[in-house]
Amino acid sequence: MCGILGVVSQTPANQLLYDGLQVLQHRGQDAAGIATLDGHTFHLHKDNGLVRDVFRTRNMRALLGNAGIAHVRYPTAGSSVDHNEAQPFYVNSPFGIMLGHNGNLTNAEELKKQLFVDDLRHVNTNSDSEVLLNVLAHELQARSKGLRLDVPTIFAAVSAVHRRCRGAYAVVAMIAGYGLLAFRDKHGIRPLVVGVNETALGQEYLVASESVALDTLGFKFLRDVAPGEAVFINFDGNFHSQQCSDRPSLNPCIFEYVYLARPDSMIDGVSVYETRLYMGEYLADKLKRNWGDIDIDVVIPIPDSSRPSALQLANRLNLPFREGFVKNRYIGRTFIMPGQAMRKKSVRQKLNAIGMEFKGKNVLLVDDSIVRGTTSREIVQMARDAGALKVYFASAAPPVRFPNVYGIDMPSRNELIATGRSDEEICREIGADRLIYQDLDDLKAAVRKNNPEINAFDASCFDGNYITGDITPHYLNVIEALRGGGNANKLLDDDQMELDLAANATSM
């Protein structure tokens, strides 16, 4: 999971990009980077850490130019990223290109071999974003003959990227001397929006992961970038767009609405906040059907993203709603933190119980989801330590039983508390008196209430249905071997053999 920005402005872009990254900080707390373009010269600063820590006044002063891209990143390999893998990435041939990427390529290893053997390009890091950058650079070079670019050539190169790359990707790229390019994979898994600002000097355009960045920076929401679509804005502020995929379809990541996105964002025509309210209504209805015998004194959210769901659930059930936990906002998201001990310690640092809201009461705790169960287990115990008589637990999302391979660092199957366990077994594992999960159909309905035109979702972490069609059990074994330090190279070779056999069978 990452946050990306791209801007073509009439004034220096550095402050716009910095402010935008601050708004998207929730999408990545591991590393941050800004690249600006001044004429044909790129200026780049990036490093590990929060936005406020990575950029100092001297760094900002060096980021010259009225156009640029920016990136915040969580690692998707389970550990802190090497500072060399912070984005944006750069290649100097052809033209000079900077690129930032949100998502994950599921055929990155295959592409890396193609780049080295066929395209004569070398990838310096383990990042799939650098792979994507080199694929784009090669396709631009092949179509332009290394001479000049025009808009049709740029869009033809993006079409070729779609044909070669599999997985989820929302991309912003700056091409020296030409402009800002942004595009989204043909499945529309990761979000991307574009906004416009009318100034006395002319139009400005901003592309971002979430609409909240547009709101904060004073840009008017124009629209979502469609699945498979590319947009290109030159330095004169001329806006171009084209569908670059043969078979695009909208399948947004449903976990964006559950947890990842800010509640004040709109993604693919859907209000994140309103969706979370609906999630609370559906969960309340299920609780009424299944828990008619349970005596609940108070509903308490686990801050922050579960608050709208918990509030609406309490309203629908005519139950008191109380804030029972105070959150320390300077602690990172625990399910993405590497190491079980660090995650467990972080929960106690992150939340503190307000004793009077628990003492002598039967409490219903509402969280947005349960991933590893570490946070849930600690919070249930905190409620008991604060004096709760009974602790019931409700998840506004279904059980997370499968890894996410499209850019969220959800762990391997053996780390997910719901994999191989019934709801009753999970309830015992987290120490609750009762546990209830949202139904997947209800979660999808909560999103569709905002936009009935969304027919499908990437809900792979809940149902194991990987919409790109290329994720096999063997592929998941490779990922888990990489996370666990096993013999991934042998598995990768076997996986490549599977892919080659499948390709040969298809071509017959």
Largest sheet: 7 strands, antiparallel
Chain-averaged pLDDT: 90
Helical proportion?
25-40%
Question: What would you call the structural class?
Answer: alpha+beta
Total count of strands: 21
Could you tell me the strand content as a percent range?
15-25%
Low-confidence stretches: 497-508
Number of helices: 17
Shape label: globular
Task: Using the CA coordinates, give the radius of gyration.
Answer: 23 Å
End-to-end CA span? 38 Å
Spatially, the strands of the biggest sheet line up as: 3-2-4-1-10-9-11
Describe the protein's architecture and organization.
- The protein is α+β, with helices and mostly antiparallel strands.
- A seven-stranded antiparallel beta sheet has the order 3-2-4-1-10-9-11, with helices on one face. Strands 5-6-7-8-12-13 form a six-stranded antiparallel beta sheet.
- It is globular, with a radius of gyration of 23 Å.
- The chain has helices at residues 14-23, 51-54, 57-61, 108-117, 128-144, 151-164, 211-217, 255-260, 272-290, 307-317, 340-350, 374-385, 423-430, 440-448, 460-463, 473-484, 488-507, and strands spanning 2-8, 31-38, 41-48, 67-73, 89-91, 97-105, 167-175, 179-184, 193-199, 202-208, 220-224, 229-234, 239-243, 266-267, 270-271, 298-301, 325-327, 351-353, 362-367, 390-395, 434-437.
- Helix content is 35%, strand content 23%.
- It has 17 helices and 21 strands.
